[in-house]
Amino acid sequence: MYRTLRAVALIALCLGAMPDVHAQAWPSKPVRIVVPFPPGGPADLLPRLLGPKLTELWGQPVVVENKPGAGGNIGMDTVAKAAPDGYSLVLGPNGNLVVNPHLYAKLPFDTQKDFIPVTMLVLLQQLLVANSSLPFNTLDDLIRAAKARPGSINYASYGSGSQPHLSGEMLKYKAGIDLVHVPYKGISLAVPAVMAGEVQLTFAGIATSMAPLKSGRIKALAIGGARRSPLLPEVPTFAELGYPEVETHAWFGLFVPAGSPREAVSRLYADTRRIVDDPEFRQKQLVEKGYEPVGSAPDEFAAYIARDRESRGRAVKISGAKAE
């Protein structure tokens, strides 16, 4: 009897010393996704669409936390310095990861060392749109008009180094034309400025452009990307018009702090990809809103970022853009 009790006690002691594998399984508590911009807009919409779906899969709350400021750098820095446990993510836009390192002499974080890429969620291609009253209806028309009267055509952006600025300066460089850059203070101001005739052109996303395009207040001359958008199949790409270097894309992806557990990264990628690949979610929540769904694996995303960083560096150099 004594030996039996002693054996039972020893087994209990060993079991007590063993880690609780189930309790440690990720995720075992709420997960937060930091958005480095204010509520509203494409950067805020994506995690709010994903959050409920991830909550269903994990049985844990997914909290979206907006931390705007400094062009997105405050939110990025918050996650760069968060505990590397897989419970803090940031919705990283390409501007902060591949453009800002070329614009800022110093950032509070290292874009290449402080984050682990989880997955690129979506690509967004921008359109070159013009005021509907202008006499040119194609990109060739615009280029001929610009060459006939250098400096007479202007385009809006939302600041030095923004995607519309880089796209406009690359178009100028490759087409050999002179367009005047007019920076506005926010992304929401550029298209209304074109509609009002304050400026003649801008680069804008499909979601932003669709309503004024349908109403005839603006017209689309070209779109970025390797293929035409299924939402606007009549609009040719810059590539097919002979200007593949004019890149208009933006992208959003999920990142965790460097040193986060591999288990968490793998689970984040697998479950996010599962949601992005769901036919109904993909069509209704992404494609119809002007997003191009991606869902790339971590290593694919990392390789894409490296190429994009180099490409954006060339565009920043050509544009002469500097941090404002």
| Number of helices in the DSSP assignment | 12
Shape: globular
Run of helices and strands: HHEHEHEHEEHEHEHEHEEHHEH
Could you name the CATH class of the largest domain? Answer: Alpha Beta
Q: What would you call the structural class? A: alpha/beta
Main sheet overview: 6 strands, mixed
Total tally of structural domains: 2
Radius of gyration: 24 Å
Overall mean pLDDT stands at 91
Termini Cα gap: 80 Å
Write the layout of secondary structure elements.
Elements (H helix, E strand, L loop, with lengths): L1 H16 L3 H4 L6 E5 L6 H17 L3 E5 L6 H8 L7 E6 H10 L11 E10 L1 E6 L7 H10 L4 E5 L5 H13 L3 E5 L6 H7 L4 E5 H9 L3 E6 L26 E8 L4 H15 L2 H8 L5 E2 L4 H22 L5
Parallel strand pairs: 1-2, 1-3, 6-7, 6-8
Antiparallel strand pairs: 3-10, 4-10, 4-11, 5-8, 5-9
Can I get a quick summary?
This protein has helices at residues 2-17, 21-24, 42-58, 73-80, 94-103, 139-148, 163-175, 190-196, 206-214, 262-276, 279-286, 298-319, and strands spanning 31-35, 62-66, 88-93, 115-124, 126-131, 153-157, 179-183, 201-205, 218-223, 250-257, 292-293.
How would you portray this structure in words?
With 324 residues, the chain is α/β, with parallel strands linked by helices. It has helices at residues 2-17, 21-24, 42-58, 73-80, 94-103, 139-148, 163-175, 190-196, 206-214, 262-276, 279-286, 298-319; strands at 31-35, 62-66, 88-93, 115-124, 126-131, 153-157, 179-183, 201-205, 218-223, 250-257, 292-293. The protein folds into two domains: 31-123 and 249-319, 3-Layer(aba) Sandwich (D-Maltodextrin-Binding Protein, domain 2); 126-223, 3-Layer(aba) Sandwich (D-Maltodextrin-Binding Protein, domain 2), CATH 3.40.190.10. It has twelve helices and eleven strands. The longest helix is centred in the last third of the chain and has 22 residues, at 298-319. It is globular and about 70 Å long.
